[in-house]
Write a sequence for this structure.
């Protein structure tokens, strides 16, 4: 891990922990010698952290790595701390005792992310094309070659990075960040503290067509997508993800939804609060997904379904019917060496026959 | 559904239907009282339409919703109209009788889409960089920060939105719309009335490499993609979809092809007229797909295959061999609760053995 | 195939072959009459090549096509050449004898690609916004509306096409080409001779969140992604592909990796040299893939796995556990007519019961 801060800008361990909100730290056990209260220039894994970095151990199975770490301070679970305290440990790192080491790591990483950012200029770049009827708070930053349409409203502290194109009547809440080259179509509403990654397209037309034989045999007539897309607060959307606008109603992402890269959310979908989806998931139109779900990477969810709260879908699974009961659901074809797969896959297409033969034997 | 038009701009029902082409309307049954010929400010579903909106019912199973709708006018099938006429209905909405309610809905939505658009300025934005050898019809609109390369030809009424980058020798037919941030590589030809959504990339290099051990063990030498991409009329392409150029021949999308978001069409593919693909489909190189096919979301189609006309592939299916017979094809692993899936998936890898054991029993 | 060069600019066969490096050509057998040493204006398949084009035959199964080709010259395997020489062939094309016809085709295509490109202007377009602290070699080309951030280093001969946005501290090696509208986040390093297609996003945040109940029930706290993305030499990345930066360490693509369109590589992944992935593959975070692997289209690979060298994954396969042994691996549900699939899929969910019933019968 590259050192994040110059040593002279690095805080001491106690300074750093004072800057972290949330009362997560239970106890600090000073390290030995120069590591009593070391300067912390960065954060790294047990294996890769250097002597001016803090690390963390989330599970006793990593005790081997802990024994070899070079980190000057380590976040540990209380039970690991007790174990280290009882043996006459040869390790000299400081220990930060905490019941939620992973969350404390996240918070410390947030601090370093903030600390390494250079002061941002709050300006509208002269190459940006901002419609005169758009209303931008004074603290909004607009990058080069951005386009902002008529009657948009962008709240305080938000950042619209280079090359973003924002249509008419779009609203963006406070402290949101659009990374470069995001597209937002007309009328989309985005809450506060959104993070939208490069290449994401929000509010493009849903896929709506009616068979129109008057045009040609088999031809499709376009159904204009008159609904919009409404996104709550604290939503993160990954690179090249697309979320379509609704046909008649709106597509909705509730507060705290987290979408990874290259996800596709169809028109009229409604995704509940704090539901997280890994990359490459596709959700077909008009499906309603509850709150606090996790959807594994490359899953697909058919259209017009209802998925309840607290449903967890394994990666690569196709959900083709409603799921009302919380729990974990899976449907993945197990891989094998090709020749083995061939043998078994051949039988797959005779399963129904096989069952009949078995029944017959049972009756005999 | 938000009201689309200010009431003073909203047409009456009879004015609206006169503006819809196609002779789809069989009969209009006036509503009662102020709904004899109501002003129609928008269109909504039965459940969500407000009292100044028109709605539609496509199937008798929604009669419950019809009973509760607030819409001032409803498009109904003749048989539903007959049913409503026979009972002494308490409902006061006007009825528009039509054999194809869904298509009429599409046409009315098209009218509202047109009506709500503000008059477009036909200009070339001063920040656009248009090569002096490009030929643009006078009625073409070019947005901010667009780049148009040498010798391009863009026909009447087309719109190239902000941030699009168009290479050399590209041709775009009349009345086509490129939404913001579309890329078109050199030499691609696009027909009339195309709709290309944001982030789409048309004509990028196909994935072609020859093993080249002279570079390094296992190394790949690039095969330049010398073909192009030819797209017919009335084609719609979704957000972040990619269609590659051909290696030696051209990749071809025929008239009326509709591609949803995040689809990938490999080099040298040929997609027949009016074939529609839902989101996240991947078609590998050199595959030929017939006309009027529908390909469900997240399906994949292997390379070098021939898929005939009128083939319908269920979502999530992998098509790995030719399909000559029209019909519906499926291959999806059924999902289940994880623990159930585990039990059954384990047996999957012994299917061939299971069959042998069954055979043995049968012989005994 | 469109003719690539005007006949007066087309080289003769012998001139063309002299321009191809690598000593691949074993022998040239002149054609008859005017095709003794014909001018070669382009390259085409056996079926589509015209009389001023060269073609190639890679396998005897295409001898039928060879008999009908109009090409004036054909690259042939030695054994096919022997066969043609022995019979009193009526064919008049020149023969280029070569043990690796496909590789020679690739090299000739490279020559035509080079020959048809117009001389490139080496300029920084006046609309580009280049930070004054960025260091660009003199021979670098920067297109319209490009944005290049502070302290970037771009080496000789590289081309940054229109609409690309490059963050701070990015390094790009010599002779690399970024097609239009590529995003590169801060701190990413890219080797020499890279080809990055339109819409690709390199170095966006990985998908990292820690449960943070202090925010709300089920809420996720962001883990800033402090690592970077390091890409070797000779890497090609397809349109709209995304490769995320690391959480604490770096994501790494080694030399010669080839990624097709719409691929997603998660944070902390390490992809070995000369590994090639077809379109729509997803690789979840922290997975290590060896060298010289090929990953078929629309495959997915779970996170935290180790895949060895020389592993070949069939398209559409989900790899959910480590693969240490070289070989080909598959896991695809075979498709069938829908009604057949339904019958067999129903049994799939009783497999474990079926096995029990079989065991019972065997014991009787």
């Amino acid at each position: 891990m590259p050192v994040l801060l110059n040593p002279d800008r690095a805080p001491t361990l106690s300074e750093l922990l004072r800057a972290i909100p949330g009362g997560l730290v239970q106890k600090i056990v000073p390290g030995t010698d120069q590591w009593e209260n070391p300067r912390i220039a960065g954060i790294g894994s047990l294996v890769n952290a250097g002597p001016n970095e803090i690390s963390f151990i989330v599970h006793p199975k990593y005790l081997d790595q802990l024994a070899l770490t070079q980190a000057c301070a380590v976040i540990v679970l209380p039970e690991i701390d007790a174990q280290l305290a009882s043996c006459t440990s040869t390790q000299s790192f400081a220990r930060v005792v905490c019941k939620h080491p992973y969350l404390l790591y996240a918070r410390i990483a947030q601090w370093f992310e903030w600390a390494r950012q250079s002061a941002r200029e709050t300006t509208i770049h002269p190459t940006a094309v901002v419609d005169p009827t758009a209303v931008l708070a004074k603290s909004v930053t607009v990058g080069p070659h951005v386009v902002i349409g008529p009657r948009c409203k962008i709240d305080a502290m938000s950042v619209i990075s280079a090359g973003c194109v924002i249509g008419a009547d779009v609203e963006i809440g406070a402290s949101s960040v659009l990374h470069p080259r995001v597209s937002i179509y007309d009328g989309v509403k985005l809450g506060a503290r959104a993070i939208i990654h490069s290449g994401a397209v929000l509010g493009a037309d849903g896929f709506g067509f009616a068979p129109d034989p008057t045009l040609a045999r088999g031809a499709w007539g376009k159904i204009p997508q008159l609904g919009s897309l409404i996104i709550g607060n604290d939503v993160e959307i990954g690179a090249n993800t697309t979320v379509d606008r609704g046909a008649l109603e709106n597509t909705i992402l509730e507060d705290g939804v987290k979408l990874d890269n290259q996800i596709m959310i169809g028109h009229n979908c409604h995704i509940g609060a704090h539901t997280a989806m890994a990359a490459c998931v596709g959700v077909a139109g008009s499906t309603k997904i509850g709150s606090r779900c996790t959807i594994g990477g490359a899953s697909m969810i058919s259209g017009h379904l209802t998925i309840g709260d607290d449903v967890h879908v394994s990666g690569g699974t196709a959900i083709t019917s409603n799921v009302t009961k919380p729990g974990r659901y899976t449907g993945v074809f197990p891989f094998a060496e090709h020749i083995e797969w061939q043998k078994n896959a051949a039988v797959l297409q005779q399963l129904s026959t096989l069952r009949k033969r078995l029944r017959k034997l049972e009756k005999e």
About this structure: Chain A has three domains: 7-116, 129-329, 336-364. The longest strand of chain A covers residues 25-29. The CA atoms of residues 121 and 141 of chain A lie 7 Å apart.
